[in-house]
Give the backbone structure.
Amino acid sequence: MILSISFQFELFITALFIGFFLGLCYDFLRIIRIYFTHNNVAIGVEDIVYWSFMSVIIFMIILYQNNGEIRIFFILTMLLGMLLYRISISNIVIKLINNIIKLVIKIVKILYAPIKMIIRPIKALFIEFCKNIRVKVRNKIKK
């Protein structure tokens, strides 16, 4: 099937955006790996799940956009989009999201401090209450 120049340009732009999207999604996976350590097997499984899921999404987009015709320039342009994302804004996005996560953690710690001060005495009373019940139950069992 012969494609018009305008349609090829549309496919090119679509593939670039898909590449950027793939890079962004993979950065979220990289951020998860920063906060939760993984062994090599887990990383491999995560990558397989990621690429399997993304392959389905890519296929659905190709099916919708290009009637299911897989063209090499589409795949190469997606790879180019991922590469451009990686070398241009990937580190900035990771730092930004990392700073947002740190800010949220600080806010949660600030909000948790008063709650912790309230819970600590209640917890101590509850532990003492449970000890008293345990002692009473043991004394009844002995009788």
Q: What stands out?
A: The two ends are 92 Å apart (CA to CA). Residues 117 and 125 are 13 Å apart (CA to CA). The chain has two domains: 1-88, 92-143.
